[in-house]
Amino acid sequence: MILVTGGAGFVGSFVVDQLLDAGHEVRVVDRLHPGAHVRRPDYLDPRAEYQWGDIADPAVAARAVAGVGSVCHQAAMVGLGVDFGDARAYVRDNDLGTATLLGALHDVAFAGRVVVASSMVVYGEGAYRCERHGSVRPPPRTRSDLDAHRWEPVCPECGRALSAAVVTEETAPDPRNVYAATKLHQEHLCAAYGREHGADVVALRYHNVYGPRMPRDTPYAGVASIFRSALASGCAPRVFEDGGQRRDFVHVTDVARANVLALTAPEPVGGAYNVASGAPHTVLEMARAIAAAHPGAALEPEVVPRYRLGDVRHVFGAADSARVRLGFEARVPFREGMREFATAQLRGPQRG
Hints:
Elements: E1 2-5, H1 10-21, E2 26-30, E3 49-52, H2 58-65, E4 70-73, H3 87-107, E5 113-119, E6 127-130, E7 134-136, H4 143-147, E8 163-165, H5 178-197, E9 200-206, E10 208-210, H6 223-232, E11 238-239, E12 246-247, E13 249-251, H7 252-264, E14 271-275, E15 281-282, H8 283-293, E16 302-303, H9 320-326, H10 334-341
Parallel strand pairs: 1-2, 1-4, 2-3, 4-5, 5-9, 9-14, 10-13, 11-16
Antiparallel strand pairs: 6-7, 6-8, 12-15
């Protein structure tokens, strides 16, 4: 039996589908967070066993882990959020939820495999090179620079322009917002559990995931979903800064397959892995690709010189480790995936 926490959600439901199609027994635990669900989704596969409850509740966690051989931990609050007022909710859902799950596993002496959904946000700003000083890590962007529309980080040594480069799993983490801090803490909690119990712990650092079943009309959704929601409302997508931010957009079915590969690898594969397409694009390119494929009136994305202080400028990753150790390679090309996403079914959150 494989336990998938958050298995009714965006990535988790696709993991469940692929595991069931491969012949595995699957148990789902999900609290149907009102920020992402109006009701139980209609895409849930009846072949799975469903337990409805909050993994941060010790009684729910104890029921969920009974008799399982592997755990796929997807349950989390995601996205940059509204402001620092969200900090308690992120820590509760992500850190306390993970600690409670691991406590329940400890109580049953679980020593199997744990795959935890992490994120590229743990890196903060991506990797950069300076012509004079080589590899450098720029400090967080300041409000004064952003107010002056100085979007690009500069070398902390000489102030020269930098060239963005791929992040690898050896890139030092440097979380720069609350969500990022909680994702790194999830990794650390799971790694500590693995060391104490001999469990094989895998952290999958998702890059920008998009695809069907994303929640819509919520500040906690990914940027692709926010753009799609705007188009569905007859509005042009609003792209912050100058749209030149570079990201790696990876389709949800590819991300789910990375989870299945990690869960079912015959040998230990513990460690952290980037889950990415390997083909970065700018945020403006992504907005234009969705807008071009949307069936409504043609709407050119609107670039507005606004910013969110916790955002980073460029972060995109190499997926070589996942290819070598897990056998993972993304299959959905950017243009094809965005064409599908332009008309894909999204989930509506509760309101009020």
